[in-house]
Design goal:
single chain; about 150 residues; Nuclear Transport Factor 2, Chain: A; alpha+beta; 3 helices
Length: about 150
């Protein structure tokens, strides 16, 4: 009986270690995707944005009056000039085996269609794993009260 319990505990230990390593790998991939998206928006580079987001992606941004599809966001890239400075380290919470939420606090400054902004914001990204790749499906930036 003791050998059986020891065997079960050993299997459980190694299973948990493998799961933790898998989750760490997912978190690194998620942070990489969002970092590449941030860079693409800063550089006004539409191709990585298309490749790293889902087709039904929605973004809610403080300088827009309505939610935007990824096609609308790409179409307005020329009118956008942004710089984001992260104020906290990102936190990634796994919502399931193929979905995650990433949050952080940042300073967001720049202009859109000539209107300047400089805000402390809370950023939420929802990502899904499709065909083995993490893609952003939802993005919301919320201003903190001044």
């Amino acid at each position: 009986m003791i050998r059986f319990v020891a065997a079960v505990l050993t299997v459980l230990f190694f299973s948990l270690s493998a799961t933790a390593e898998s989750r760490l790998s997912d978190i690194e991939a998620i942070n990489d995707v969002v970092g590449r998206l941030d860079e693409a928006y800063t550089q006004k580079n539409a191709e990585p944005i298309r490749l790293l987001t889902t087709k039904d992606h929605i973004a809610i941004l403080p300088y827009r009056s309505t939610p935007r599809t990824i096609a609308q966001a790409i179409a307005t890239l020329p009118a956008l000039d942004v710089k984001q400075t992260n104020l906290t380290e990102p936190t990634v919470v796994m919502l399931g085996p193929a979905s995650a939420m990433r949050t952080l606090t940042a300073n967001f400054e720049g202009s859109f269609e000539g209107k300047k902004f400089n805000n402390k914001v809370f950023v939420t990204s929802i990502l899904v794993k499709q065909d083995g790749k993490w893609l952003e499906s939802f993005y919301q930036m919320t201003n903190f009260a001044r």
